[in-house]
Structures are given as C-alpha cells and as structure tokens.
C-alpha cells in the first residue's frame, strides 16, 4: 500500500529535524558547515531526506494525474454519446479476405486444367 502524503510530510519533517540536530552537534565540535558532507552520519541523514522528497514528488504526480483523469471522465460522461454509424459498403478487413479466396479459386482452376490435359490424352 502506498504511503499517504500526510505520513510522508511527517517523516520528512522528522528527518530534517534529525539532520539539523546532527548538524548542530557537528558545528558544536568545531566542524565547518562546508565540511559536514564528509561526515557519514550526516550523509545518511541527507540521503534519507532526499528519498522522502523524491517519494513526495511521486505522490504529487500521481495525485495530479488522478485528478486530471477524473476531470476527463466527468467531461466524457457529460458529453452526449456519439451515434454509431453503420457502414453501407464492405469494410476494409473483408476486402483482402475475398481477394485471397479468389486467388485460391484461380489456383484450383489451374490445377484442374492441368489434370484435365494430362487425363485427356488417349493411347
């Protein structure tokens, strides 16, 4: 089951608090802000924040896609149905089939004609 937007927001807020807390301890030890990225724990916390941000972007994209689909569905339901038109002529799919059948009949006639010629010889 996918995570909800609210739970992801809450998790992201907690992850950012942990990152800020760890950044504060690093600063308290005398580590410059530019050098925080060298600390493995800081990198792990930052990666956790990035993962959660990515998930939130995905959830937002899904929500907008679903909303757009709902709008299209409502528009389609509100529009009058298109009347079905029956075609008077033969469909395109039927025409090639008939040609194939005619071609087979011609081949059968040729075969019959050849047999007739061979059988018609008298001794």
Q: How is this structure best described in words?
A:
This protein is an all-alpha fold and 123 residues long. Helices cover 72% and strands 0% of the residues. It has helices at residues 5-28, 40-78, 94-119. Helix 1 (5-28) runs antiparallel to helix 2. The protein is elongated.
Observed structural traits:
elongated, mainly alpha, 0% strand, 123 residues
Low-confidence stretches: none
Give the fraction of residues assigned to helices: over 70%
Proportion of β residues?
A: under 5%
How many beta-strand runs? 0
- The DSSP helix count reads 3
Gyration radius, to the nearest Å? 37 Å
Question: Could you outline the blueprint of secondary structure elements for this entry?
Answer:
Elements (H helix, E strand, L loop, with lengths): L4 H24 L11 H39 L15 H26 L4
How is this structure best summarized?
The chain is an all-alpha fold.
């Amino acid at each position: 089951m996918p995570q909800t937007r609210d739970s992801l927001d809450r998790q992201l807020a907690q992850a950012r608090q942990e990152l800020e807390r760890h950044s504060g301890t690093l600063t308290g030890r005398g580590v410059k802000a530019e050098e925080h990225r060298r600390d493995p724990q800081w990198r792990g916390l930052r990666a956790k924040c990035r993962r959660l941000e990515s998930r939130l972007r995905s959830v937002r994209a899904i929500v907008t896609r679903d909303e757009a689909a709902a709008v299209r569905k409502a528009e389609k339901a509100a529009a009058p149905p298109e009347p079905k038109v029956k075609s008077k002529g033969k469909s395109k799919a039927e025409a090639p089939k008939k040609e194939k059948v005619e071609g087979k009949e011609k081949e059968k006639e040729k075969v019959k004609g050849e047999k007739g010629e061979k059988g018609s010889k008298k001794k």
